[in-house]
UniProtKB/TrEMBL annotation:
Biological source species: Photobacterium chitinilyticum
Recorded superkingdom: Bacteria
SUPFAM superfamilies hit by this protein: GlcG-like
Name of the protein described by the UniProt record: UPF0303 protein EDI28_15485
NCBIfam families assigned: PRK02487.1-5
Pfam families given in the database record: HbpS-like
Family: Belongs to the UPF0303 family.
HAMAP family: UPF0303
Length: 161
């Protein structure tokens, strides 16, 4: 389990933006939609910065439940500044739950894969990138895979230095 947690933290460290704006939110949201379509998957997508939704799209065959899952997973990232997949695995490694350890309401917080911190390098977490519609690990992988292709190599290279 520690290897997984280390890997997830490395993703968060590596996949940071040099800058982010409304146009990048649109481009990233469209890239997530295109990647989901390539998988023949139906997902809801949300990109939120400082509590302002900059991109939201619900593909065919998604429901309002997907948006509710996004809200709850986004709350985890907002509170803990780590991906919702990391936090779920973190508490699993501790043989606990977020509800027991952090005394949070499970109706408000969902530590399941699918919400990733939107981080500006040398600044910190400013928002979230979230999807819902696939199994939780695949929701997380969809975001990570798209970010790995989306980010300029200079953005991720500078993070390694």
């Amino acid at each position: 389990m520690n290897d997984l947690l280390t890997e997830l933290l490395a993703e968060e460290s590596r996949l940071q933006f040099a800058y982010f704006n409304h146009q990048r939110a649109w481009d990233l949201g469209c890239a997530l939609k295109a990647a989901a379509e390539q998988l023949h998957a139906s997902v809801a997508i949300d990109i939120t910065i400082n509590n302002q939704c900059l991109f939201s799209y619900a593909m065919a065959n998604t429901t309002i439940d997907n948006l509710e899952w996004i809200r709850r997973k986004r709350n985890v990232v907002h509170r803990y500044q780590h991906s919702s997949w990391y936090m779920g695995n973190y508490y699993k490694a501790k043989e606990s739950t977020i509800e027991k350890s952090a005394l949070v309401d499970p109706r408000e917080f969902a530590p399941y894969g699918g919400s990733f911190p939107l981080t500006i390098r040398n600044t910190g977490v400013i928002g979230t990138i979230s999807v819902s519609g696939l199994p939780q690990k695949e929701d997380h992988r969809l975001i990570v895979n798209v970010l790995e292709r989306f980010l300029d190599p200079h953005e991720t290279e500078e993070n390694r230095a």
